[in-house]
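If you are new to this repository, start here. Below is one unmodified record pulled from the training split, so you can see the exact layout before writing a loader.
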Amino acid sequence: MTGDFDTPLRPQTEAEVAEMVRLADGPLSLRGGGTRGVAYGAGQVLETAGLSGITLYEPGALTLVAGAGTPLAEVQAVLSAQRQRLAFEPPDLRAVLGRQGLSTLGGVVATNASGSRRVQAGAARDHLIGVRFVDGLGTVVKSGGRVMKNVTGLDLVKLMAGSHGTLGVITQVAFKLQAVPECAVTLQTDVPLGAGLALLRRALGSPFEVSGAAYGPFGAALRVEGMEASVRYRVAALKALLGGDWVESAGDALWVGVRDGHGLGEGALWRVSCKPTAAEGVVAALAGVPHQAVFDWGGGLIWIAVQGLADAGAGLIRGAVAGVGHATLLRGAGAAAFAPEAAGVAALSRALREKFDPKGILNAGIMG
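And here is the target side for that same chain:
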C-alpha cells in the first residue's frame, strides 16, 4: 500500500484492517485513542478508533464484548449503570503524558493497563477472555470467547495483552466483569517510607483481602472492599494486626491519583515494577537528584518523576532495578522506553514477532 503517510489510515471494520495490513508495503504505527502508548513505531499511522461499539453485554453473566476502538469512558458508563466495573482499574494517563483524545479498550489491552486493584484482582490480561486481531500478514485471528476456559498450548488472549501492537492489530475484545462492592474503606497512617512499605507488605500478606496498598505524600494507605459486614471485620482486624493510628476515609480521590500518577510534577516519568522489598532501595539510588515517587502494589509498582538528568535517570533507575524488576520510561527523552531484554527473553520475543508479523511492519522497533 502506498500513499500519503501524513494521512492516518482509519479502518471502520475488521475486514478493512485486514486489507490495509495485507497491502502494506512499509511499517505501520498502530494507535487507538493515542492516550497511553509508551512509544509508537515509525511508519504510516493506523488508527483503530473506528472499530467502536459494544456488541454484547450480559450483566447477568458479567460479560462484555466490544470493538477495540470503543472508548473506555463509554464502557465504564454502561457498566456503572448496572453497578459493574472492569476489576483491574485501568489508569487514565492523559494528564501525566500530556495527551488528548479518548482511551480505547484496545489500547488498554495492548498495554495491559492495570491500576491499584491489580494486587487483589489481577491485571487486564487476567480478565480478558477473548480477543480478535489481525496479524502482520493480514489474517484475522480469533482466540477465546465469552466464557472463561482452561487453555492448552499458546494462550493468544494473554499473549496479546501487553504486546504493544507488535503481534497484531487488536480488533475486538471480551472481558469478564466484576460487580461494584457494597462498601469500600481506605485506611491511612502517616509514617516514614520504610515503615510504611513494611506495613503495606504485612497487610498484603494477611488473610484480610486488601485491594489497594500505596504510599505517597498521603502516607501509607490501604483499601478494603466488599460486603459491609466483611469490610468492617477486616478493617478492625487490620488495625489490630498493624498497630498505630489509622484514619478511615472513602479514599476515592486518593486511589484515582495513585492509579493515574497524579502529583508527580515535571521531568521524566518512570513506571518501575520490582520486588516490593526492593522498592526503597530503587528510590534511594536517586539520592541527591530532584525526584518524586509514589509507591503502589505495596512497593511492587513505583511512579518516579526525575529531573535534571541527560539520560532521564535511566542509568540510576535501571541500575538499581537490575535483577529485581524493570523500568519503563513513560515521559521524557534520553533513554529507550523499554530496557534491553535478557538474551533468552529477547530470542523468544523475536521468534514470536517473526511468527505473527514476518514482514516486521507492526509497531516495529518499539520493544527491541
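Two things worth knowing about this chain: The chain is about 30% helix and 25% strand. The mean pLDDT is 93.
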